[in-house]
Amino acid sequence: MKVQKFDSVWDAIESDPAVAANMKARSGLMIEIGQAVKRWRTTQAAAAKRLGLTQPRLNDLLRGRINKFSLDALMTIAAKAGLKVKVHVSRAA
Questions:
Q1: How far apart are CA 48 and CA 85, in angstroms?
Q2: pTM tops 0.85, yes or no
Q3: What's the pLDDT score for residue 16?
Q4: What is the pLDDT of residue 14?
Q5: Do 62 and 44 touch, CB atoms closer than 8 A?
Q6: What residue spans define the domains of the chain?
Q7: What is the 3-state secondary structure (H, E, C) of the chain?
Q8: Nearest to 25 by CA among 88, 92, 68
Q9: Torsion sign across C-alpha atoms 86, 49, 57, 42
Q10: Phi, psi of 14 (to 5 degrees)
Q11: What is 14-80's CATH superfamily?
Q12: Which residue ranges of the chain lie beneath pLDDT 50?
């Protein structure tokens, strides 16, 4: 049996490299936003208001419900959270 190694879980479960790249970007943003919210040490309701979201929508983000968020939406939320987002593009191996 041949063992396969992947750079990320998304590369392992997504057959389309474009979909895997999108999922990696979305999950990374969700993690960073969640960490920013945690650093605020406030309620979800107050954090949601600060981000321009409803509390249930923020809860979806904090619980990792990735399919409920587009990359575009997460970029906007990250900016509202005071995060600087950089996109790095390189040639595929």
A1: 20
A2: yes
A3: 87
A4: 83
A5: yes
A6: 14-80
A7: CCCCCCCCHHHHHCCCHHHHHHHHHHHHHHHHHHHHHHHHCCCHHHHHHHHCCCHHHHHHHHCCCHHHCCHHHHHHHHHHCCCCCCCCCCCCC
A8: 88
A9: positive
A10: -105, 125
A11: lambda repressor-like DNA-binding domains (1.10.260.40)
A12: none
